[in-house]
């Protein structure tokens, strides 16, 4: 490498959204307007809604760029087997099956000759869903050299090459009647795509983001204009929530601004416009159908939990200490996504276990625990005798991976379907073993029994018996099974986040003194896991609201926030205990009754925190701030308001 000398011709950089919109510089010579994608969508009679309105309000927001920054960076290990002309790849990925297919295609290797293994993965957040150049280059080098090759990303490389998230400027305009009823919503979003289009890049601000613009409210018409633009920056793609945080942020900030202008209580304005449980299933202007939801009940519980009514006394106490205290809420709605099918397989082993092979990939969510619970629930076997297997494409030929908060309701349906097949095969085997008609065999609590008798056999014993018979060459029915579930409908988790903050007007420092979440994630299979997911999501959303900013130099396009010395992640002492209450409104579109929970915390937290900060600063004359609300930005806003 030392022998190589590279001369660079430095070209003018397009380093920000406003530069891309101005189009005075071009990220690509053949794209003079820098526009990479465009969506225009109008549903309902928008013109009639605005013509009928007695109040309209425009609001311009910037959602800054975020780096995904999982604790474990990317890594690839590749080994080529010359005798078999096959490739084995270990990688920190959320989707081993799709990475396998991409590597095979790029290197022109038969799919069955490529194995991708994803062991324990230390965080992903969407960034690890994709094929990266290093997957292909490491594999190519291993084949070329005939020896194993390993590559591990350093943190500075990750900031320069891992896909990033968010980064858009949105103009929102809401139309209301005299009572504050929401009539129509008009949005124009300029979204940064980076230097080139990443895997799902254009989909995130368009179909993923616009799908939830109506949120939980009864808008009659919605207009979405999304313009994706090229810049000389890291490509933008899916990052926890993937378009839904930005859409919810716009709507919830817009509602608070409308409430201030119309002098209507912000809670009351939301309550007036919420879709009621009696309207379920509810079809939105954006083509989504909410199967379930009780938004007002969730809202009322959240307000009571945070003692919303007693806040003014706390504001006065803070003022006596020279601090400005604010409280903010955001009611979010998430739409989960992902592949339209999912696979599960169950194998009864010689050493007395049930191995459950799944097509999703845990990156710290606790899938192994939840899937064991589902298997125990269906088969009645001891939990310690269940092992979850994931991430190896040789033993798991297909699967949708993890993303879009899809895992539990998708893989859960596949596990349920597979368990049903296991039980049906077990009834057939038990009828032979117990010498009874199959119609008389019942299964309950892990045991097959003959109706009306005390004769029966446990499922683990039956499975072992059948395996032994097959080993002897007998014709016997094994209980092993595999099924693919069709995911016909996605889910709509929702909830209310409330943040209470204190701002030091002399320094601009923001402290979150209390934070609560009331969530409807449907049936909670494991409430502890749900709360853990919400905690992590809230921390990421708080970081976006107050600390994080992937900054570039405007002239050169040089990344300025290229390490944790420059990019401020939340630390433990930045956040209070996060209180999470769960109100179960079962989902009606899957047999588990669950709704996705993995992304929800990151969707509701940015608008809740920012609404709280603005509430704290409104008495000082500050009615708007963009993220991140850093001490410098807050202090400058307070100082400018004083001067005005």
Notes on the structure:
- This protein is an alpha+beta fold and 644 residues long.
- 32% of the residues lie in helices and 24% in strands.
- It is built from 16 helices and 22 strands.
- The protein has helices spanning 17-22, 46-52, 96-107, 133-145, 155-161, 204-210, 244-262, 266-273, 295-305, 311-320, 367-379, 407-433, 459-471, 527-546, 600-617, 631-643; strands spanning 35-43, 55-67, 75-81, 86-91, 114-117, 149-152, 164-176, 182-194, 221-230, 282-283, 289-290, 324-333, 341-348, 354-358, 386-389, 441-444, 447-450, 456-458, 481-486, 494-503, 510-520, 578-582.
- The strands form six sheets. The chain has a five-stranded mixed sheet.
- Helix 6 (204-210) packs across helix 7 (244-262).
- The chain is globular, with a radius of gyration of 27 Å.
- The N and C termini lie far apart (58 Å).
Overall mean pLDDT stands at 96
How is the biggest beta sheet arranged?
5 strands, mixed
Report the end-to-end length measured between terminal Cα atoms.
Answer: 58 Å
Strand content: 15-25%
Could you say which structural class the secondary elements and strand pairing correspond to? alpha+beta
| Record field, number of beta strands | 22
Strand order of the largest sheet: 1-9-8-7-2
Topology:
Elements: H1 17-22, E1 35-43, H2 46-52, E2 55-67, E3 75-81, E4 86-91, H3 96-107, E5 114-117, H4 133-145, E6 149-152, H5 155-161, E7 164-176, E8 182-194, H6 204-210, E9 221-230, H7 244-262, H8 266-273, E10 282-283, E11 289-290, H9 295-305, H10 311-320, E12 324-333, E13 341-348, E14 354-358, H11 367-379, E15 386-389, H12 407-433, E16 441-444, E17 447-450, E18 456-458, H13 459-471, E19 481-486, E20 494-503, E21 510-520, H14 527-546, E22 578-582, H15 600-617, H16 631-643
Parallel strand pairs: 4-5, 8-9, 14-15, 21-22
Antiparallel strand pairs: 1-9, 2-7, 3-4, 3-6, 7-8, 10-11, 12-20, 13-14, 13-19, 16-17, 17-18, 20-21
Helix pairs in contact: 3-4, 6-7, 7-15, 11-12, 12-13, 14-15
């Amino acid at each position: 490498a030392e022998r190589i000398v590279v001369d660079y011709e430095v070209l003018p950089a397009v380093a920000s959204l406003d530069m891309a919109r101005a189009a005075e510089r071009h990220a690509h010579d053949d794209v003079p307007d820098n526009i990479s994608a465009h969506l225009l969508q109008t549903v309902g009679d928008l013109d009639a809604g605005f013509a009928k309105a007695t109040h309209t309000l425009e609001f311009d927001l910037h959602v800054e760029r975020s780096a995904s920054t999982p604790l474990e960076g990317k890594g690839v290990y590749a080994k080529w087997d010359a005798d078999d002309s096959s490739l084995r790849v270990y990688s920190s990925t959320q989707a081993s099956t799709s990475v396998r297919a991409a590597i095979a295609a790029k290197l022109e290797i038969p799919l069955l000759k490529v194995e991708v293994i994803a062991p324990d993965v230390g965080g992903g957040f969407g960034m690890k869903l994709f094929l990266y150049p290093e997957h292909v280059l490491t594999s190519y080098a291993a084949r070329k050299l005939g020896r194993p090759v390993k590559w591990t990303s350093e943190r500075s490389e990750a900031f320069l090459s891992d896909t990033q998230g968010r980064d858009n400027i949105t103009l929102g305009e809401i139309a209301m009647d005299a009572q504050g009823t929401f009539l129509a919503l008009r949005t124009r979003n300029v979204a940064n795509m980076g230097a080139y289009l990443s895997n799902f890049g254009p989909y995130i601000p368009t179909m993923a983001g616009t799908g939830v613009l109506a949120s939980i409210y009864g808008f009659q018409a919605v207009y979405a204009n999304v313009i994706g633009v090229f810049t000389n920056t890291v490509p933008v793609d899916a990052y926890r929530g993937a378009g839904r945080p930005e859409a919810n942020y716009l709507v919830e900030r817009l509602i608070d601004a409308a409430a201030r202008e119309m002098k209507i209580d912000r809670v009351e304005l939301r309550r007036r416009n919420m879709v009621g449980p009696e309207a379920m299933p509810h079809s939105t202007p954006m083509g989504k159908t909410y199967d379930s939801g009780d938004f007002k009940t969730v809202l009322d519980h959240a307000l009571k939990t945070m003692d919303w009514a007693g806040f003014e006394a706390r504001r006065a106490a803070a003022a006596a200490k020279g601090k400005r205290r604010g409280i903010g809420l955001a009611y979010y709605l998430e739409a989960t996504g992902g592949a339209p099918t999912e696979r599960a397989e169950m194998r009864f082993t010689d050493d007395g276990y049930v191995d459950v092979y799944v097509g999703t990939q845990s990156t710290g969510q606790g899938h192994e625990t939840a899937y064991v619970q589902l298997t125990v629930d269906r088969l009645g076997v001891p939990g310690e005798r269940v092992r979850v297997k994931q991430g190896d494409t040789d033993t798991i030929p297909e699967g949708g991976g993890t993303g879009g908060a899809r895992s539990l309701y998708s893989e859960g349906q596949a596990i349920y379907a597979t368990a049903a097949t296991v039980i049906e095969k077990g009834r057939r085997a038990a009828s032979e073993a117990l010498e009874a008609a199959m119609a008389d065999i019942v299964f309950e609590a892990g045991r097959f029994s003959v109706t009306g008798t005390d004769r029966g056999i446990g499922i683990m014993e039956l499975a072992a018996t059948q395996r032994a018979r097959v080993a002897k060459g007998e014709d016997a029915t094994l209980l092993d099974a595999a099924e693919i579930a069709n995911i016909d409908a996605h889910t709509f988790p929702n909830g209310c986040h409330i943040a209470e903050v204190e701002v030091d007007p002399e320094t601009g420092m923001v402290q979150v003194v209390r934070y609560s979440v009331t969530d409807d994630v449907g049936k909670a299979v494991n409430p502890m896991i749900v709360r853990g997911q919400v905690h992590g999501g809230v921390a990421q959303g708080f970081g976006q609201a107050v600390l994080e900013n992937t900054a570039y130099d405007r002239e050169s396009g040089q990344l300025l926030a290229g390490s944790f010395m420059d990019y401020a992640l939340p630390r433990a002492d930045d956040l209070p205990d996060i209180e999470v209450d769960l109100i179960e409104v079962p989902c009606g579109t899957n047999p588990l009754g669950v709704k996705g929970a993995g992304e929800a915390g990151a969707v509701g937290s940015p608008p809740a925190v920012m609404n709280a900060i603005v509430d704290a600063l409104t008495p000082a004359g500050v009615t708007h701030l963009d993220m991140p609300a850093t001490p410098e930005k807050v202090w400058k806003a307070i100082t400018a308001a004083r001067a005005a």
